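// run 5 | inverse folding | seed 20
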C-alpha cells in the first residue's frame, strides 16, 4: 500500500507543477517566430555596413558598362560585397548598364523592390534613383528618384513595391541605378499594418490599416525593360490612401450601365408612380 501511495504522489506532483507553469509554457515562442525587440536594428546595421564599405568609384566614368540593360526585369541583390560609389556627397550601392541601341524611344524600365525581412515593422526597401549618361559618361538631365507603390499580385513576381522610369532622351547611352540620400531617408506607403504577434497563435497576422515602410541602403531590386506583367503591376499599384468615397451603391451606379439602376416596372410594362393620383385607374367614356 505504501508503495502505491508513493507512486501516486510521484505522478501527481509533476502534473501539479506542469499545470501551474502552463501560463509560462503558453507564452514561450521559438526565437524564429518572435518579432524583433528593436525594429530598427536591421536598418541601422545596413547603414553602418554601407558607411564602412570602401568605395570603388568617384565618377560615372569609373563604372563598368559591360552589361546591357536586361530585356525584362532581372533580380539583383545590392548589399555588402556589391560595388559602392561616393559622389557629390552621396554614397550608395549601384548598378550600371549600357542601353540597347535598337530600342525604340520612348520605352519604360520596370522596377521592383522587395521587403528586406519577414516582419513588416522592421523591414525596409531599397528605393532606386536613376540617372542617364551620354557617350562621354555625363548626366543627361537630372537624376530621378523613383516613386514606389505597393502591388499584391497572384504570385511573388507581381507582389512588391513597383515603379517605372521612361527613357526618351536620344543622347542617352548608359543608365546608372543607385539610391540617393533623399531616397534612403524616405519611406513608401504600405496598405498593411505591422504583423501583430500572439503567443497563442504566433502566425496570426493583422493585415488591417496602413503605414510607412522605411527606405534602406541595400536590398533586392528587380530592374530591366518593362514587360507586360510589370506594366500591369505598376499601373494598378497603390501609392497612397484612397480618397473617401460616397458608398458602394453610389460607386456601382457610376460604373455600371444606367438601365440596371432604372425604376422597376410592373407586369404591364408601366413604371409605378410615387403619387396616389397617378396610381388611380383612368376614367373611360365607354359604357
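// decoded
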Amino acid at each position: 500500500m505504501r508503495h502505491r501511495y508513493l507512486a501516486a504522489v510521484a505522478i501527481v506532483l509533476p502534473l501539479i507543477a506542469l499545470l501551474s507553469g502552463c501560463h509560462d509554457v503558453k507564452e514561450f515562442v521559438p526565437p524564429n517566430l518572435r518579432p524583433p525587440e528593436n525594429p530598427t536594428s536591421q536598418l541601422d546595421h545596413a547603414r553602418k555596413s554601407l558607411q564602412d564599405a570602401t568605395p570603388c568609384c568617384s565618377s560615372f566614368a569609373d563604372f563598368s558598362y559591360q552589361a546591357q540593360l536586361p530585356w525584362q526585369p532581372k533580380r539583383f541583390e545590392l548589399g555588402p560585397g556589391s560595388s559602392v560609389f561616393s559622389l557629390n556627397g552621396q554614397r550608395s550601392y549601384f548598378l550600371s548598364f549600357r542601353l540597347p541601341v535598337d530600342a525604340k524611344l520612348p520605352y519604360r524600365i520596370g522596377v521592383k523592390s522587395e521587403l528586406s525581412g519577414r516582419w513588416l515593422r522592421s523591414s525596409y526597401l531599397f528605393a532606386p534613383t536613376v540617372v542617364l549618361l551620354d557617350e562621354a559618361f555625363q548626366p543627361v538631365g537630372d537624376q530621378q528618384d523613383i516613386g514606389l507603390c505597393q502591388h499584391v499580385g497572384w504570385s511573388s513576381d507581381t507582389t512588391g513595391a513597383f515603379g517605372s522610369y521612361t527613357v526618351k532622351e536620344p543622347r542617352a547611352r548608359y543608365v546608372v541605378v543607385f539610391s540617393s540620400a533623399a531616397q534612403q531617408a524616405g519611406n513608401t506607403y504600405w496598405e498593411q499594418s505591422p504583423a501583430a504577434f500572439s503567443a497563442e497563435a504566433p502566425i496570426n497576422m493583422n493585415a488591417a490599416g496602413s503605414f510607412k515602410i522605411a527606405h534602406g541602403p541595400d536590398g533586392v531590386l528587380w530592374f530591366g525593360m518593362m514587360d507586360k506583367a510589370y506594366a500591369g503591376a505598376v499601373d494598378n499599384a497603390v501609392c497612397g490612401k484612397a480618397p473617401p468615397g460616397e458608398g458602394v451603391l453610389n460607386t456601382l451606379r457610376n460604373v455600371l450601365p444606367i438601365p440596371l439602376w432604372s425604376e422597376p416596372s410592373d407586369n404591364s410594362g408601366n413604371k409605378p408612380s410615387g403619387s396616389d393620383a397617378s396610381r388611380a385607374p383612368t376614367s373611360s367614356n365607354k359604357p
